[in-house]
Amino acid sequence: VTPPLAWRVGQGYDIHRLAPNLPFWLGGVLLDSPVGCVAYSDGDVLLHALIDALLGACALGDIGDHFPPNNPQYKAMRSSIMLAHVLEYVTQAGYAPQQIDCTIVLEAPKLGPYKTIIKNTLIQLLGLSVDRVNVKAKTAEGLGAIGTQQAVAASVSVVLMAVGT
Ligand SMILES: [Zn+2]
Description:
Blueprint: E1 7-20, E2 24-26, E3 29-31, E4 35-37, H1 45-57, H2 63-66, H3 79-92, E5 95-105, H4 115-126, E6 133-138, H5 144-147, E7 151-162
Parallel strand pairs: 5-6
Antiparallel strand pairs: 1-4, 1-7, 2-3, 5-7
Helix pairs in contact: 1-3
Zinc ion is lined by residues 14, 16, 39, 45, 48.
């Protein structure tokens, strides 16, 4: 048996298709946008990537293991609720998130006006201070499915520290 880790690192990635007249949730924030994510839940790619990063850091599998798609229990479920469950698993594993770094890849709408709102929402959801959360936004330079506004993707890295005992 290997000794318990003082620190753990996780990374997560997610992508969703975009379609007209759907809500566009990103990092727990509702964007003003003519398109939104096609998804069984609320389709929040950033929170889904964060959830996968947290699960990965704790060696607890992935979001599909814990919230299987096509289970009516999770239809249209807010990702912030899923995140709250996963933060509970992290606590039970004996760890606490210390830092996250996020990258969102989206062509439109432009995320400039939303970056601070998304960052502040993540700070609240995770209970972290302002110097522990970073949100980066970029476009796909017009290339591929994201560049032609058919999809949005996000990746998140997270660092956990062992707490208690
Ligand atoms: Zn997703």
